[in-house]
Amino acid sequence: MTKTRRPRQAVPRSIAVPRCAATPRPVRRAGAAALALTGLLSAAACSGPSSGKQAAEPVITAEPAALSPSYGSGSPSASANGVVPLTPDVTARLDAAIQRVLSQTGVPGVNVGIITPGGTYLKSFGVADKTTGTPMDPSLHLRIGSETKTFTATAVLRLVDQGKVGLDDPISAYVDGVPGGDGITVRQLGEMRSGLFPYSSDPDFVNTLINDPNHVFTPDQLLAYGYKHPAVSPPGTQFQYNNSNYIILGKLVEKLGGLPAGRFITDQVITPAALGQTSFPTDGTMPSPYAHGYTEQTPSGAIADATNWNPSWAWTAGAMISTVADLESWARTMATGALLKPATQAERLKTLPTGDPGVGYGFGLFDNNGWIGHNGSLPGYESVAVYLPQAQSTLALQLNTDVLYQGSEPSSLFANEITKILSPKHVYSIPPASAAPSTPASGSASGPAPGATSTGSPPSLPASNSPSTVRT
């Protein structure tokens, strides 16, 4: 996520898995979107110091809080499992908090789904199309950015369960051409600790994507942008959110699965998980019905409709599409390991520090103060899908913009405010992005990608390169 402050409109506006672009503000943001493709680790996904200025007293922040301002005396307390009962009063507080974030951030529309043992919450706010004023609706399809990484990681782990690959095998045993591949393991790629330079931080990539959002990239072309740079760190030594890792894992899935990555993920993950509204696109077409997505990752920095931009630049790091109901279901399936052997899921859940307090990253998922899952951001869209195991509760949200608010991913702000009310002892929190996300806007691939620290760029990353990152 870029920390650069961008002009905001007075009216709501609606991904950016890749995140900011190069030196010019518009390009910088565009690059961020591509890199973002992260989701939850939006702050971590940034790779560089923030050059933007934040308001002295922002009304909304993503800072952790023991209690939300809207969760005061007289409100029901969290039960032993960590979530509050969804009483009419709590529901009203959630409505008010979501409306407040929607208004203050200028997000066009958002879908929010919550499932707890004591009740459910499924509501839409704002508009799905700023031109027609069509209301946002839970049935609509939106791009999910870096949530895609959770599907790619699951596909790899299905191959582990089938005995076709080992997590500690060198990637060179399966994928040719990876610099230093003999010393980089499959596990390190999934944990964002390969040390490779992220392709979505390369200025040439960012410029190509921002100036031609319908450009069709091949996986090898994407990786080539990163491979021309030296490694950022030795394998296994530091966390750096990096879309390149998940493009390489996509190639591994194709090699061992014997099918195009999207087809394998559909057959081995989407279908077994019974996600009837989730898909891996092969072009820029959106399945109907869908919400339009809005971004400022453009050459001029002007807001544009990114709905049908080609997601090939994000591929297995952030190209997928889903609905809020499917994300609710997927968050539980992913966090509980329903598609994997228990021992394999246990390996996936071994999270390591990211540099952000309370946030650890495992094999294609994070633990954010107890919430297990991921976030995503790419030009036009952002998402969060997380599960709180001890409370058997799920939170999923989707919004149709990736435009940052005072340096923060709007999806993180919604999740933060919601969990302050829903689970005050487990508040979802990601610091504002420092400069540019480490993945193109996406998600997902939104959200989260740290460098040497979760919010800063690795010391070895060229300073001129950090702002030219696209989020995913």
Properties at a glance:
single chain; 472 residues; alpha+beta; 8-stranded antiparallel beta sheet; two-stranded antiparallel sheet; 13 helices; 28% helix; 12% strand; disordered N terminus
Molecular structure report:
- It is built from 13 helices and 12 strands.
- Helix content is 28%, strand content 12%.
- It has helices at residues 25-35, 42-45, 88-105, 147-161, 186-190, 203-211, 219-227, 243-257, 261-270, 315-318, 324-336, 342-348, 410-422; strands spanning 109-116, 119-126, 142-143, 294-295, 304-305, 321-322, 352-353, 359-361, 366-368, 371-378, 381-388, 393-399.
- It is α+β, with helices and mostly antiparallel strands and 472 residues long.
- The strands form 3 sheets. Strands 2-1-12-11-10-9-8-7 form an 8-stranded antiparallel beta sheet, sandwiched between helices. A two-stranded antiparallel sheet has the order 3-6. It has a two-stranded antiparallel sheet with strand order 4-5.
- Helix 1 packs across helix 6 and helix 4 packs parallel to helix 8.
In short:
It is built from 13 helices and twelve strands. It is an alpha+beta fold and 472 residues long.
How are the SSEs ordered, and which strands pair?
Elements: H1 25-35, H2 42-45, H3 88-105, E1 109-116, E2 119-126, E3 142-143, H4 147-161, H5 186-190, H6 203-211, H7 219-227, H8 243-257, H9 261-270, E4 294-295, E5 304-305, H10 315-318, E6 321-322, H11 324-336, H12 342-348, E7 352-353, E8 359-361, E9 366-368, E10 371-378, E11 381-388, E12 393-399, H13 410-422
Antiparallel strand pairs: 1-2, 1-12, 3-6, 4-5, 7-8, 8-9, 9-10, 10-11, 11-12
Helix pairs in contact: 1-6, 3-13, 4-8, 4-9, 7-8
